[in-house]
Fold this protein.
Amino acid sequence: MSSALTDLFPHPIVQAPMAGGVSVPHLAAAVCEAGGLGFLAAGYKTADGMYQEIKQLRGITSRPFGVNLFMPQPEYGDRGAVEIYAHQLAGEATWYDTELGDPDSGRDDAYDSKLAVLLDNPVPVVSFHFGVPSREILESLRRAGTFTLVTATTAEEALAVERAGADAVIAQGVEAGGHQGTHRDNPETDGTGIGLLSLIAQVRETVSIPIVAAGGIMRGGQIAAALAAGASAAQLGTAFLATPESGANAVHKQALTNPLFVRTELTRAFSGRPARGLVNRFLREHGPYAPAAYPEVHHLTSPLRKKAAASGDAQGMALWAGQGHRMARELPAGQLVEVLAAELDLAKTALSGKGDLR
């Protein structure tokens, strides 16, 4: 990886930006202080809310960190499909004693306002999800001294990232928890995602910019495998979800290793975009019928998810998790970085033929 990024953090460990209140400043700070790259998630926040979190993070660590933005989404034409889904969710609204959200609550996630803040008050790293920013935006961030990363789920998307001028690409395998960062939401490709190691190899043969590997990584040995495949660093989300610094709901944290939740699945049930979560009642009952309508479905189900979380009902929550969720460790975030780094060193020694993994 180019020194412009590797100089920012000693360990090739990136804490994934998890929107919805998970990637809070104290989590990012703990990761940064331990030698990884901590991230704030600006998704679903106002521009001022993002700015206040940046100020808070800067108050508790002087180390480099990142901020993630969601790209604005194109208009969704089939209003009827959203209305039909809203009708299907009427029973959920009755059950949780709430109203469904307004599907027209906004499409751009205050993208322009957030960019203005990040250009006026530059941060070390900015990443993008759900698409590729314009070359002009990436150049503006570079001139401000910001390193840019963009998520890709295929080699073709990675090529688009490189051509736009991003400094590095996040190769997100299908194992990843939460939303897939596909550039275009095409229902015809549902369930056809690429596994991380295959994706790294394909992306490595397609682009020359550095690769950050993401998707189901929970152990240092997996980081070593990603590096050996061609990545320069690894991004972990679910592994940090269970830490005490994480802002995730306690029910969500407990569900990661709860034997009631044995597998994950990609679903549109909660947001209208493919996202990997633990299979629960809501996902099973509504996933097959949810339209490809993001962020309309996200806004529609928001009150339901909040009431389920408030009542401690894991069966109605969006329990985002990667395929390695059963390997989650309830360690402080800083200690987790140290353990992962030690596991990585051991795995690298074994791969070099100087030891073993016993």
